[in-house]
Amino acid sequence: MLKRRPFFVPPKETIRINEHIRVSEVRVVDYDGTQLGVISVPQALEKAKERQLDLVEVSPNSAPPVCRIMDFGKYKYEIQKKLKVSKSKQHIIKVKEIKFHPKTGENDYNYRLVQAKEFLEKGFKVKATVVFRGREMAHMEYGARWLKKMTVDLAGLGAAETNTMVEGRNVTVIFAPTKTAVKPKKVEVSVEGKPEKKPVATEVAKPAEVPAVEVEG
């Protein structure tokens, strides 16, 4: 009977400090940036102990590894703080998927169209998918008509970010939200006791400036 091999779990990357540093010699940088040179780990630990700080391996792949004498708790806090700031700067766009079938009726399509508009208005991308089954695969162009119709019906709110893509039994298009200009508002203004509608000048969103492109030849 064959024995199963044990499931291998790769070790987590950790920062080695103090007695967990398993090499004989290290290059040591003091807490104030002073280079202490290459010394044995016991000597480096003694210097860290004299300063009531930790010996932290900051560059394990160097030859020899580089260690720094520092407050490890503070160092770990600074790393976590930088990671948190980095994650907060990441702009994540979620994708919402709506599905059709080739035989989807007009009412069902309109319902999904309303959903797609709501998602786009909230800033989500929309993945519109037509799902084919069995013999329907022979007439994929017929089912994909809903995607062409949706491209037209979403004009002003969303634009097709991709061409029609075939994924196995599915045909999909991804729509991304678009920004629209603000229309000027009209208010009623009273002139000599008679109400009269007159347009009031308002600021209209200007189209983005297109940078000049130099074309050779």
What would your notes on this structure say?
There is one protein chain. Strand 1 and strand 2 form a beta hairpin. Strands 5, 6, 7, 8 and 9 form a 5-stranded mixed sheet that branches. A 4-stranded mixed sheet has the order 2-1-4-3. The protein contains 5 helices and 11 strands, in the order ββαββαβαβααβββββ. The protein has 217 residues and is an alpha+beta fold. The protein has 2 domains: 70 residues, Roll (Ubiquitin-like (UB roll)); 83 residues, Translation Initiation Factor IF3 (2-Layer Sandwich), CATH 3.30.110.10. The relative contact order is 0.08. It is 26% helix and 28% strand.
What is the count of β-strands? 11
The SSE string, one letter per element, is EEHEEHEHEHHEEEEE
Mean pLDDT over the residues? 77
CATH class label of the largest domain: Alpha Beta
Outline the fold blueprint.
Elements: E1 25-29, E2 35-40, H1 41-50, E3 54-59, E4 66-70, H2 72-89, E5 95-100, H3 106-121, E6 125-131, H4 140-143, H5 145-153, E7 158-160, E8 165-167, E9 170-177, E10 186-191, E11 194-199
Parallel strand pairs: 1-4, 5-6
Antiparallel strand pairs: 1-2, 3-4, 6-9, 7-9, 8-9, 10-11
